Each structure stands twice: as structure tokens, then as C-alpha cells.
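Can you please make up a protein's amino acid sequence together with its fold in C-alpha cell form to help me picture the idea?
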Amino acid sequence: MNLNDIYTELIMEHNKSTHNKRHLENPNTIELGHNPSCGDEISLEMKFNGDLIEDASFIGSGCAISQASTSIMIDLIKGKSKEEALNLVETFIGMIKREIKNDEDLEILEDAMAFKNISNMPARVKCAVLAWHTLKESINKV
């Protein structure tokens, strides 16, 4: 099995998974994200404990890429500080824009590296970055 097959399987697993697709009880923030070009929508709910992201979840609908990207992002940010989460956003977007190409620099993205080649599909880029832009908006408002 090659790396692309593993990444595709990972994206499909997260698209089908419901472990992050739920409402949080008493979230500190709820940020809506919408991709008008394809109709993907998410509602990112986050709970903070001081500067740390204690919990996060989402409700939404859209393609497998947007839903999987959101779920993978949530797994990655739980327990991280706001600053660490913003660094992950910048790294992810840098990867998608092909500004960051060194795999060692991208390792902090863990499973989110599955979206590395999405830049080869311009119509899907907005799907992959929707959650990440929504996360940045949410943190910048807190």
C-alpha cells in the first residue's frame, strides 16, 4: 500500500467518524465557517481552559475533504495553547500553498499531512482549509 492510499483511507475514516462531530456542552466560542464555492459549512465549537483548548467539536455538512480536515484538525488542537494552534494553522496553510515543503517542518501536522497534495486539486483547496481559517477566526476573537 502506498502513502497516497494510506492518506486517502485516513481522510475517508475521518469523514465517516463522529467522534468530533457533535455539540459541546457550554462552549466558550462557536464560529461558523462557510465555503460559498461548494456549500461546505461547519460550526466549530471550542471550550478553553485559560489559554488551552480543552475541547473542540463541530457540526456541519460538506464534502469528505472538508469534514475530514475539520475532524483531523480538532484531534490535533485539543490540549494545545492558542499560540500552538495558530502555529498549526499557519503551517497547514503554508503546506497547502506549497510555501512549506520540508517534511520535517510539516511533521507537527501529524495526520493533517494527508492533505499535502490537495494543492494539486485547486477546486478542493478551499474545502481543506475551511476549518483552519475558521479556527483562526475563532481564536482571534477570544
Remarks:
- The mean pLDDT is 92.
- The CA atoms of residues 46 and 93 lie 21 Å apart.
- The two ends are 43 Å apart (CA to CA).
- Residues 122-141 form the longest helix (20 residues).
